Amino acid sequence: MKRVSLEELMGRHPQFTYGQQYEYIGNLIAAGRLKPVKNAKTNGKRPALCLSYWRIEEADTSYRQLEEELKFHLEPFICVEYYLDHLEEYQNDRSFVLMLNEYLKNNRELLEQPESVNERSFEIWNREKFLTKEQGSRILKRCRIDAAFFHMYGTAEPLAYYSNTRETPQNMLVLENKDTFFSMRRFLLDGNTVILGEEIGTLIYGGGKRVVKSFQDFELSVEPYMKAESNNIYYFGDLDYEGIGIYESLRRQCFRNQGQGKRTIVPFVAAYEKMLEKAEQVHKLPETKEQQNRKIAGDFFDYFPKETVARMQEILERNQYIPQEILNMGDY
Hints:
By secondary structure, the chain is α/β, with parallel strands linked by helices. It is built from 14 helices and 12 strands. It is 41% helix and 12% strand.
C-alpha cells in the first residue's frame, strides 16, 4: 500500500465539485482501491472526507484484464490507443467509457435525431452537464471521437423582446443594455410609437455579447411577424469598443454569413447622435476599461456622416466612452 493525500487524489480532477469529489473517493473505497488512514484528520466539510488514504496497488492481473477489455470488448469506433498507454487513467475513466461503449453498441440510431448538448449528455452518461462542465470532452478527446459525431446543437438564451405592434413591415430595435430596454419599453407602453424620429414596432433586449449567439437562433426564437424580410432592424449600444464590436459581430455572424434572407442590421444613427449631443454637457466622460477588446473592423462607422465619425473616434482615442444610459425617457 502507498500513502496518498486527498489533495493528491483530487489534483487530477480540478473540475470536480465537492459532491463529485465525495462520490469519487467513495467509489474508490467501495472498490477496495483506497482505505482511509486510521485516526487521520478530516477536511471539516459535510459530508467529511479523510485527508489521508492508503492506496492499494493494483496487481498485474488487473492491468491485463483492463488491456483485454480495451482490445477486445469495446466498439471499434472508440480509439483505445491512449488508454492502453495510460491504464491508470482508464481505471479512472472506465465507468464513463463503458457507458459510451454501451450507447454506441445499442443506441447509435438515436444519433439520427439532433439533440441539445445537455440532452445528449444525459442520454449517454445520465449527467446533463457531463459534456460541458465535467469529464465528457476530455474522454471524447482520449477516445478520438469528435463531438460533431453526436449530432448535437448548442442552446442560447432566448431573445427577450417587447412588440408594440405585430404589423409588418416594422422597425425593430436591438438594445445592448437592460436599463435602456426597460425605459424604451415604458415609453412605448405610455402610448408613444416614435423613438428619436423613428417609428419602432419591437424592442429586443440583446444582453451584451450574448445577443450574437441568441440571434443565431433568430428564426426559431421569434414570432412570424418578426421574421418578415421587409422589416428593418436597428442596433443601439454603448459608444465604446465593446459596443461597436458587438454590433459588428452581430452583423457579420448573424446576417452577412448566416444568410438571414434580405435582412440586414444597421446602427440606430439618431440614438448615437443624441448620445454625442448630451455628452457635450458632461464634465468628464467615464474611462474605457483596460481589458476591453479594442479591435473593431470599422463597419459601424460607415452609416454616419464624417463629422459624426470624427467626434466618435476622438472620444474612443481619449480612452473614454458614452454609455447608453446617458439617454432616458425624456430624450426619446
